Structures are given as C-alpha cells and as structure tokens.
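Researcher: Please predict.
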Amino acid sequence: MDKFLVMIALVAISFVQTINAQENSSQPIQPVIGAYLELKNALVQDNGITARAAAKKLYDAIDKVPMDKLTAAEHKVWMDNQVKLSYHAEHIKGTDDVEHQREHFVQLSDYFYKIVKGMNENAADLYYQFCPMANDGKGAYWVSENEAISNPYFGKRMMKCGSTKDTILTHQ
C-alpha cells in the first residue's frame, strides 16, 4: 500500500510540474516582469551599477518577448507600450548615475504598469505604489512584488515613503 501511495504522489508531483511549465511558457512577459523588479530593487538599494545591469536584462527581455505567444488583446497592449518601455530601459542601462536612472524609471514604471495591468500575465500578486514626494514633488508610481513599501525613488533616505494604490492579482 505504501508503494502505491508513493507512486500516486510521484505522478501528482509530475503533473503539477508539467502544469507549472505550461503556465510559465504561456506567460511570455515573465522575463520582463522579473527584470523590472530587479531594476526596482537595485534603485531601492541606491545601487546604480546593479540597476544598470538589471536595465540591460530588462532591455534584452523586452526585445525577446515572443510575439506569437500573445493574444490579440495582449499584442495591442504590448505594442502600445513596448517602444517607450524599451526607450527608458535603454537610457537606464547607459548610466550608473542613480538619480538619472530614477528620472527614467518614472516613465518606465508608467508603461510597465500599463503592460502588466493590461496583459494580466503576472505569476504573483504585484502592487502599484506611489510616492507623492518623488519626481520633484509631482509624485511617481512603481510596481512592486511586495505590499510593504520600499521606495525606489529615495532608497535609503526615505525607504517607507509611499502607499499602495492598486493590486494586480496573480494571473489565473
């Protein structure tokens, strides 16, 4: 009987792994999401060198999105925002200056939010957050994988400045 239960468990594990692999392949923007979050976290840490590397990953991931895996609606959202997203990623990857990176991160985050909200391809909940003091007092948004605020615009100077404005629930 124990061997039978072990065999059932192994089959179940294999099934779950297969489903997870299929889900990941059907979520073509996951590399873009991962690279964006890496960039955001580097800015939270005030690390221009790491932010530059993450922006390069983001830029490359944007270029490699498999268009044939997008639905018609996803394709429209992607095409409406991809060029501008790529533009700002390119600027961020071109400098180690954290303040200049943050200037481009403001617009990059706006386009990124439109993509993740419009495509609903996130594998985990994401949080759309806002700091009213960023962007020379005009305020700025970003997307985070954590509900707790870690501000990429002020980093260690004002780590907790901001609030969550929207939750983008996990792709179902």
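Model: Residues 29-168 form one domain.
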